[in-house]
Design brief:
The structure holds two protein chains of two kinds.
Chain A lengths: L1 E7 L8 E7 L2 E6 L13 H4 L1 H5 L9 E2 L2 E2 L2 H15 L4 E6 L4 H14 L6 E3 L4 H11 L8 H5 L3 E5 L2 H4 L4 H10 L4 E6 L11 E4 L2 H14 L6 H10 L5 H12 L3 E5 L4 H13 L4 E4 L6 H8 L5 H10 L4 E5 L7 H9 L2 E6 L11 E4 L8 E3 L2 E3 L12 H12 L19 H5 L2 H7 L20 H15 L1
Parallel strand pairs in A: 6-7, 6-13, 8-9, 8-11, 9-10, 11-12, 13-14, 14-15
Antiparallel strand pairs in A: 1-2, 2-3, 4-5, 4-15, 16-17
Helix pairs in contact in A: 3-16, 4-13, 4-16, 5-12, 9-11, 9-12, 14-15
Chain B lengths: L1 E6 L8 H10 L6 E5 L3 E5 L8 H5 L5 E3 L5 E3 L9 H5 L23 H5 L5 H5 L5 E5 L9 E4 L9 E4 L1
Parallel strand pairs in B: 1-8
Antiparallel strand pairs in B: 1-6, 2-3, 4-5, 7-8
Classes of the chains: A alpha/beta, B alpha+beta.
């Protein structure tokens, strides 16, 4: 019997509604919800892969210990023994950016209770957590405009390449552009990218400099009253260029300005946040690659950076790594962690580049296969997990139980009194970054680019292996 | 009779149509894409021509234009000779994927979806609404818009703002 369920795509911050047709609990196809007012049922290339991802032949369906299929009890007993052997203080948990708020709280509780007060590390290869941290530090909301607000905007400032990461956002942007000849779409980017091609004005060049020039233009126009941080901008960028002045004038004159922010650079995010604070009635929509990440970060509270974990692994301070991330091993940093750790337990929905090297494989569910809080609201499961796959939170719950611990209810959250590395601390490095290195933002991971054939780690492999099967 | 149109000003070249076509019909090459320097990348859609060159080229009458105006491939008659691929003046017939079961890929406007009252998958998924399924004739009478394309197929399938 065919049924249709609605969920949301997690591959970017838009969270486009997606319908999944299922038969006896197994997904059989996508449904484009044409009656959805915001998106019209549209799905980008990433969203169209959802059904294939759920049914991919490389889905992990059973735990494996040293390549041998085992049951969950055997796997968890072995993992528990390994943690006790190497020491809980020499064990780390790595969480992916796509987990639910509940799973994030469970991870925080697990590391606090079972690993001697440690913090989970966060694996977000695109660096979106840094931008989120900068926004949080500046007190700027991550998102406070709807599709309708964007479509009604009279001035849209697009930083980075929002059309690349979240193509569906082009719908309200182009709708606003074509609705009135007076609507401005200003693209701020290093070079001519997908978004810039549709802009009415393109500010080309180093993004930090461009944004600083706009802020300088706003300050010169008397539109700001925050002299503190402006001292940094004025010192480093003494002359507002013509672009900065012109864009500042457009923003100041707009009645319904909106900022679309796409960046993994905390300095850029911080500068953009300051612009939002300066411009009257300016809304903001931050485009990130992991749709529910801000809510995950909020639930997680505090976490350790992957760079910090990598240093610990390299020194031998961490000998056991439990990675619960679908893309662990898809970037150089996580790959090196996996290879250097004495024991890697990898929980993932799908085969990853580290699968062959992991001592233990644990099959994980996708967000579509488990109920949880994403985008701040509850999403129900729309399909069954294949085989014995479980959610990351459930895996940690069971592991804690195996180790003899009892975790608090993930719905209540958990706090840790130990001093920790706050995202805001990293974002507080904003001023020195502007001073010391204004022209060289960090290189963005190309994992989540698409349209040029490169997609997320798991979709890359889904595409690759699909192609291989067809060729065979 | 409805056909596919492309609003060039709205196409951002995201390739969602190709993935949707692949997911629904496993024929990613049914929708080709073309890139014009400094203009953009946009899909090249099958025109379902009134006098289809692919049908004329087919030696086995595998390509047929039905009463609804849809040019269909009969997989049981197709031998995979790719004469249709070579004959199509718009390059919409897939060749990059190779041959599957001795048959070439061919758009049929997602007949199964049409029968359910839905639009073709490429149209339904298009993030910006650039791909449209409209009545042939003068689908866009909006001020400042113009149709582009060749008369070869009997209708012009590209729209853009003046």
């Amino acid at each position: 019997m065919n049924e249709m369920f609605t969920s949301r795509c997690l591959f970017c911050s838009l969270g486009c509604p997606v319908g999944i047709r299922s038969r006896f609990g197994e997904p059989v196809g996508l449904h484009y919800a044409a009656d959805e007012k915001a998106t019209g049922g549209a799905l980008c290339a990433k969203g169209n892969y959802l059904c294939e991802l759920m049914t991919h032949p490389l889905r992990l369906v059973e735990p494996r210990h040293h390549g041998v299929p085992v049951g969950w009890e055997t796997a968890l007993n072995a993992l528990s023994d390994r943690i006790k052997e190497s020491g809980p203080d020499r064990t780390a948990v790595v969480l992916g950016g796509e987990v639910s708020a509940e799973d994030a709280r469970t991870a925080a509780a697990f590391t606090a209770e079972c690993l001697g007060g440690a913090l989970p590390a966060l694996h977000v290869p695109t660096g979106d957590d840094l931008a989120c941290g900068a926004l949080a530090a500046s007190g700027t909301p991550f998102m406070n405009v709807s599709f309708a607000d964007i479509a009604a905007a009279d001035c849209i400032l697009a930083v980075g390449d929002p059309f690349e990461i979240a193509p569906v956002i082009a719908r309200p942007v182009l709708g606003a552009k074509h609705a009135s000849k007076d609507t401005s779409v200003i693209a701020v980017s290093d070079d001519a990218n997908r978004t810039a091609r549709f802009a009415t004005r393109h500010v080309s060049g180093p993004v930090r400099s461009s944004l600083a020039g706009i802020m300088r233009g706003l300050a010169d126009g008397g539109k700001t009253d925050s002299p503190g941080w402006m001292n940094v901008v004025q010192e480093r960028f003494p002359d507002a260029d013509d672009d900065g002045k012109a864009v500042a004038g457009m923003l100041a004159a707009a009645e319904r300005p909106v900022l679309l922010l796409e960046t993994n650079d905390p300095a850029t995010a911080g500068l953009a946040a300051l612009i939002v604070q300066c411009v009257r009635a300016m809304g903001i929509h931050t485009v990130i690659s992991y749709g529910s990440l801000p809510w995950t970060l909020d639930a997680l509270g505090a976490y350790e950076s992957l760079e910090t974990l990598a240093a610990k692994v390299a020194r031998g301070d961490i000998r056991t790594v439990v990675a619960l991330s679908s893309e662990f091993g898809g970037d150089n940093l996580s790959l090196s962690i996996g290879r250097q750790a004495g024991f890697l337990a990898l929980a993932s929905p799908i085969d990853t580049p580290l699968t062959g090297g992991a001592e233990m494989l644990l099959p994980a569910s996708l967000w579509l296969e488990q109920a949880g809080t994403y985008f701040g609201s509850r999403l129900e499961a729309v399909a069954m997990s294949p085989g014995g796959a479980l959610s990351c939170g459930r895996i940690l719950d069971m592991l804690a139980d195996t180790m003899g611990y009892s975790l608090p209810d993930s719905g209540n959250g958990h706090t840790n009194e130990k001093e920790r590395e706050e995202p805001a601390k990293r974002a507080a490095e904003l001023a020195p970054l502007i001073k010391e290195n204004p022209e060289q933002p960090p290189a963005r991971s190309d994992i989540l680019r698409f349209g040029n054939g490169v997609m997320t780690g798991h979709m890359k492999m889904a595409t690759y292996h699909h192609t291989q099967r067809r060729r065979a | 009779m409805k056909k596919l149109f492309v609003q060039v000003d709205l196409c951002i070249g995201c390739q969602a149509h190709a993935v949707a076509c692949q997911q629904v019909r496993h024929l990613a090459d049914t929708l080709q894409s073309s890139e014009i320097a400094d203009v953009g990348t946009f899909p090249i859609v099958c025109r379902h021509c009134e006098e289809p060159a692919c049908a004329a080229a087919c030696p086995n009458e595998a390509m047929v234009r039905d009463e609804d105006g849809v040019v269909r491939r009969n997989p049981y008659r197709c031998t995979g000779c790719t004469s249709c691929v070579l004959a199509c003046p718009f390059g919409v017939l897939g060749s990059g994927m190779g041959l599957a079961l001795f048959a070439s890929g061919k758009c049929d406007l997602c007949t199964a979806r049409l029968e359910e009252g839905a639009e073709p998958a490429c149209v339904a998924t298009c993030p910006t609404g650039a791909l449209r399924y409209e009545e042939v004739g003068e689908p866009f009478t909006g001020e400042g818009e113009m149709v582009l394309g060749s008369h070869l197929s009997g209708y012009r399938s590209y729209i853009r703002r003046r």
